[in-house]
Design goal:
about 250 residues, alpha+beta, six-stranded mixed sheet, 6 helices, DNA-binding
Length: about 250
DNA sequence: ATGGTGGTCCAACCA
């Protein structure tokens, strides 16, 4: 089973890249973030033509998440119970007995901003909801754009980013609390060279200089850990004309 | 130190 996550920064613009990538890579599941479209605009027919079904939760202009899958999706959830939010950032579904939880975690803008407080509150709600989900699903993968670099080795210039949004202690602590429910960072199960990132700013030729961050993660529950056989970033789509600023990250299970 | 780019949608917000 091959599972991937990709922040596409507008599915309307990136659809050709996504369809080409699906055809080439043939993942069983692809979780998308920042589709930036309303539900009625979702190009489900074009995924169907490639042999995929999909579920999605969209909104106008911002955010929006989807799960594209070769196999049927069950028990779809789009919100934390009791958490009122117009921002579409959550999509969970069970596929082949695996609970897939797709998150587009708030960016947070800067540590002094209201958006940062929203991010921390959102992560707290996420932890509580995941704890409840865990009671019903031992085989879980929480994946998506976390907008948190877990450790300094996930940052091209840790000194410059120290204490900044995406790297601050409170964000990393919130991620640690989620991991402590019983998840491991799948990519770190495998030996990696230094400088493995999943996002590079469009500005300042950041991709060419590999000035990136690893903020797109696949967290796997203990019940799935023994099935993990590979996890890696595919930088190829980031090299295309008019790319997303994120690259897909992949997990392969036996 | 600033601004550098890109998407949405045409002024300004978000990343």
């Amino acid at each position: 089973m091959k599972i991937a996550t990709w922040n596409v920064n507008s599915l309307r613009v990136r659809l050709p890249h996504v369809l080409e990538w699906l055809q080439a890579q043939q993942p069983d599941v692809l979780a998308l973030q920042e589709i930036k479209m309303t539900d009625d605009q979702f190009p489900v027919e074009q995924f169907n033509e490639c042999g995929y079904q999909a579920v999605w939760s969209g909104q106008k202009t911002y955010n929006g998440v989807a799960i594209v899958s070769k196999h049927p999706t069950q028990d779809v959830v789009t919100d934390f119970p009791g958490w009122q939010d117009d921002q579409r950032r959550i999509l969970a579904a069970t596929i082949d007995g695996v609970r897939i939880v797709n998150f587009y975690v708030p960016n947070g803008e800067s540590v002094a901003s209201d958006k940062y407080q929203y991010k921390l509150a959102w992560l707290k709600a996420a932890k509580h909801w995941l704890a409840a989900e865990f009671k019903q699903h031992d085989k879980m993968i929480v994946l998506g754009d976390f907008n948190i670099a877990p450790e300094d080795r996930d940052v091209h210039d840790p000194a410059a980013w120290q204490g900044q949004v995406l790297c601050s202690d409170a964000e990393r602590a919130a991620l640690t609390e989620i991991m402590a429910l019983g998840f491991v960072d799948s990519l770190r199960l495998f030996e990696q060279e230094a400088g493995v990132f999943s996002w590079w700013d469009y500005r300042a030729a950041a991709f060419r200089r590999n000035m990136g961050m690893r903020i797109d993660l696949l967290l796997v529950s203990a019940a799935l850990q023994a099935r993990c056989c590979a996890s890696y970033v595919d930088k190829q789509p980031r090299k295309l004309e008019r790319p997303s600023d994120h690259a897909p990250v992949i997990l392969e299970l036996t």
